[in-house]
């Protein structure tokens, strides 16, 4: 990765190092409830994922107003800070800055890293990718971690890109120098095949948010990843 702090010698500040070392230890990447809320308290749904071992919580609310996202984000920022869990905001750089999130997650159609970096400074920038070319570009542009998928069929993202399958996951360890998180159709059933393909980081939405016991499901999945 490129050195990009303002410190003499190009070294990273302590804050940047702390964030990147937390990132290196991520196994289970979880989400705010989105369409899987079903009348529950969103903060409690996130708290259950944290109790179950979530290493990251991403604020991903496609159908909320920005004001509602801000209000939920303030609560999740407080919770994740208290619990020592990384807090990432999907898509929205302004909101990530306002909330003092640990980072932002950008898709291929979002603001490119070269415009996001000056605003995010030493915070984390993650990028969604769907091919080796996109992985290479994101890494060269300074992505701190890569989301790679969709690995398996998923109903959670109707406008999904073509499935990448486990073959591409298996190649990632040789081509991707930053942490990579597999996403798409991953749950209790698929998690072992992911580990067999050499990936011990998974982002899971529906399998966890639809589980009868969210905390227990997180524990079951994370145990296999560690
Ligand atoms: N990006 C690629 S697939 C996907 C996203 C956000 C959805 C993953 O959801 P699920 O329910 O874990 O398959
Ligand atoms: Mg996006």
Describe this structure in words.
By secondary structure, this protein is α/β, with parallel strands linked by helices. It has 10 helices and 8 strands. It has an 8-stranded parallel β-barrel with strand order 1-2-3-4-5-6-7-8, surrounded by 6 helices. The chain binds 4-methyl-5-hydroxyethylthiazole phosphate (TZP) and magnesium ion (MG).
Number of strands: 8
What is the residue-averaged pLDDT? 95
Largest sheet descriptor:
8 strands, parallel, barrel
Cα end-to-end separation: 25 Å
Q: What fraction, in percent, of the residue positions are helical? A: 40-55%
* Each distinct ligand: 4-methyl-5-hydroxyethylthiazole phosphate, magnesium ion
Question: For the CA atoms, what is the radius of gyration?
Answer: 16 Å
Structural class: alpha/beta
**Helix and strand sequence:** HEHEHEHEHEHEHEHEHH
- Tell me, briefly, the overall form: globular
Question: Tally the helices: what do you get?
Answer: 10
**Percentage of β-strand residues:** 5-15%
* Poorly predicted spans: 1-6
The spatial strand order of the largest sheet comes to 1-2-3-4-5-6-7-8
